[in-house]
Input
Amino acid sequence: MERTPFGDTPESRCLYYRLVCGLPANIDPPGSGRLTFPAGSTAALTMPGPLGSVLRIYMQQRGIALGPIIVHVGSNRWSFLVRPDVPDDDTRQFSDLFRLNVMIVRSGAIALPSPTAAPGGGSRRWIELPRNTFRPSGNVVFVAIGRCTGINRDPRSLAVHRGR
Output
């Protein structure tokens, strides 16, 4: 975070994530500087960086609101923080996304950018900063992945999820 009103330490950033962004962040393990929060009210769609970049542009060009996006610098994987409303019954779509190396994180810990660099240079950075509690619908992002990669060829599916 460039200039948070709390300074820039793991503790201050954890407080920012909690108070401003509504993320139940913790320093885990204590004293490590590693910031995480438990998936639950927020999930993540994680994918290779090139796909994340294409998806971000696709969503911006179509006026689909972006939420926070994290990049893990070492592995170049992007995580879109979303509401956990991705359907779990579309087997064909999940199979296609699996082949694209897209994962849905619905449980466990989600790591957040910290001002403390992780050993081995595996730090996380924000692509889209969280400025409030907004997270886009995971379902809308899920469908957008299919649309921008050609997996979901039904043009009505994204319009339905955009409220049209």
Q: What stands out?
A: The mean pLDDT is 86.
